[in-house]
Amino acid sequence: MIRKEIIDEIKARVDILDVIGDYVNLKKQGGNYRGLSPFNQEKTPSFYVVPSKGFFKDFSSGKAGDAITFLMESEGMSYVEAIKQLAKRYGIEVEEENMTDEELEAQNEKDSLYIVMKYASEYFKDQLWKGEEGKAIGLSYFKERGFSEETIKAFDLGYSLDLWDGLLKTAKQAGYHQDILEKAGLIIRKERKEGDRRYDRFRGRVMFPIHNLSGRIIAFGARLLKINPDIEQPKYLNSPETPIYHKSDVLYGIYQAKQQIRQEDNCYLVEGYTDVISLHQAGIQNVVASSGTSLTQEQIRLIARYTKNVSVLFDGDPAGLKASFRGIDMILEGGLNVKAVVLPEGEDPDSYVRKLGGSQFKEFLKEQQQDFISFKTAVYQEETEKDPIRRAEIIREIVHSISKIPDPIQRQVYIKETSVKLEMDEGTLFAELNKIFIKQQRSASRQQSYEYEDKQVDDLDFAHPEEPLAEVKSNSLNEGLLNKEKELMRVLVMYGHHAVEENYMVCHYIKDELEDISLKNELHQRMFDVYYQHVDEQKSLMEKYMIEQVEPDISKQVIDLIVEHYMPSPNWEERNVYVPKKDEDILKVITRSIDQLKFDVIKDMIEQKRQELKSVSDENDLIILMTEIQHLVSVKREIAKKYDIVIS
Asked: Which CATH entry fits the domain spanning 4-89: 3.80.10.10, 3.40.50.300, 3.90.580.10, 3.30.930.10?
């Protein structure tokens, strides 16, 4: 366990903008900051950071919390791991106890996998720098590629011994269970009649660790150096998918590149590990690789956290160029601006930057990059001069790429430019573009129709038309009541410790006014109870306490209540939805919130008693119920009159 004083010190030192800024491109908006959600794909930013209160709120996914919560949500960390990560970031020493085998096994699976991957990385690095085989083969290879010792260490490069069980044996001696090693993809198990056999996945290879955004190692890429003609082995070998590694979500080098991508407002996209490392060493550090896999939407969203501009570096191979076009269309569809740079034939980024040097290569990139639509047009244009049929196909290809661009103004500009380059009537290109959109809309409409039909079937299966109409009204009524409870809890958390008069605070006033009322929402009632359990402690920062010190669902709800997301509609007050202003008298605010809640509680009680009337046969009981209803209606009218609410 980590001592509470250490946790408090970490929380006091944490700059939430600094932490979240590594993951989200934030822009200032008033006193807060806004960006695209790191948890969901979206085009309109709905992710907010409130630095003055030290928390974030993501309206697209519903996630909310402080810097610790953010790391837990975005990286899948445990609470302790997130604390340790922040402690390391801010130079705060946290004492760690050595774990026994039992403690290691007791950790949840993800925690154990992160730990064992870190161990494996240290093992591979030790072999590279200290082992005879590693130095002779692995280190020599990296230095022949021109990698400096500083670069090798920056990317945690290593070497795996050409042994069947080099890592397995050493890890078991260190106390790591072979089942965890297998789940991490570090060893392979083969089932045999005489018993299972386990051995290292990576043998006789240079190792390229793959880091997540926070720098933790989640997988390895490995290159075979010694070719044995008697044994068939792949030249390149990657970790399999594991609970902490999903290759479609990861870009190689993103951990080392993310800050520079933000500063340069551009990301260079290459194919291989050595491309990334060579460019990084040459001073071009805003570079990542898809690691030979097809580009995915998740990878594109990862880039979009830091920049809207992507420059794709293509090898000179024409076949490879066209194979990459589908991935580029996906980048366009993600709303990013795409530039293309074609290297001379026979060159890749690694070889060409070593040939030119960093300065000349930067100049080459600056001079050669062009927007993707123009680039694609030029590539295909060479094929169309003597083939009208192929020309028509290529025009459709290019218009298809333009259709992926979300911004209508950009689409119009590209149509205009393409019409000039292809010597094609602009109206014809727009007609083709409209065909694509009409086809997409029809497809979407059919899908919605299928979903609607499915929903109708579900409704028929589960609907109960025999239920009384009053029940439906009651549900609608309760929804309004719950909204009023929510507003009251917001006022309580934000203003509860404000003084109404000497020795009498807003929270006391609310408690007195709600003496006979229980909150309908179970979470609201728990929040209410927690607040009043600590009200006598005179916590001047109760809002902060409710976020940091209580159950996660209460903390999340508190943040939901106090983050201002949407501006209130001017029509809300006309509809009796009251939104208090910040500079308004606090007692007036709380009085109105309580009265609104009472008004809906009374409406609910009246409806319930009217339902009871239907089943009452005793005359005395009937008179009592009628009297109670009459009293409730009278109180309801008094509140309505106070706020000019028209009631029927």
From this structure: 3.90.580.10
**Could you state, in order of their start, the residue ranges of all structural domains in the chain?**
4-89, 109-245, 254-431, 471-642
Q: Give the amino acid at 293.
A: T
- Integer Rg of the chain from CA: 32
Residue 552 contacts residue 566 (beta carbons within 8 Å): no
Work out the percent of the chain whose per-residue pLDDT is above 70: 80
CA distance 596 to 531: 21
- Is pLDDT larger for residue 39 or for residue 221? 221
List beta partners, residue 337: 309
Residue 612's DSSP bridge partners are none
Whole-number pLDDT of residue 139: 96
Q: What angle do CA 554, 560, 566 make, to 5 degrees?
A: 170
Distance between CA atoms of residues 518 and 601, nearest Å:
9
What is the number of residues in the chain? 648
User: Do residues 241 and 279 lie in contact, with contact meaning Cβ atoms separated by under 8 Å?
Assistant: no
Q: What count of other Cβ atoms lies within 10 Å of the Cβ of residue 104?
A: 16
Q: What is the mean pLDDT of residues 131-139?
A: 95
Check pLDDT > 50 for residue 606.
yes
Rounded Cα distance, 559 and 405, in Å? 35
Q: What are phi and psi of 156, to 5 degrees?
A: 55, 35
| Nearest CA-CA partner of 19 in 60, 70, 61 | 70
The neighbour count for residue 15, using CB atoms within 10 Å, is 13
Residue 100: the pLDDT is 56
Using an 8 Å Cβ cutoff, are 237 and 222 in contact? Answer: yes
Angle between the 372-384 and 388-403 helix axes, to the nearest 10 degrees? 170
Question: Are 371 and 339 contacting, i.e. CB atoms less than 8 angstroms apart?
Answer: yes
Considering only residues 274 and 40, tell me which one the structure prediction assigns the higher pLDDT. 274
Tell me which fold the domain 109-245 belongs to.
DNA primase DNAg catalytic core, N-terminal domain (3.90.980)
Among 104, 124, 110, 106, CA closest to 166: 124
Nearest-angstrom CA–CA distance, 31 and 633: 45
The CA angle 467-469-471, to the nearest 5 degrees, is: 70
Residue 440 pLDDT class (50, 70, 90 cuts):
confident
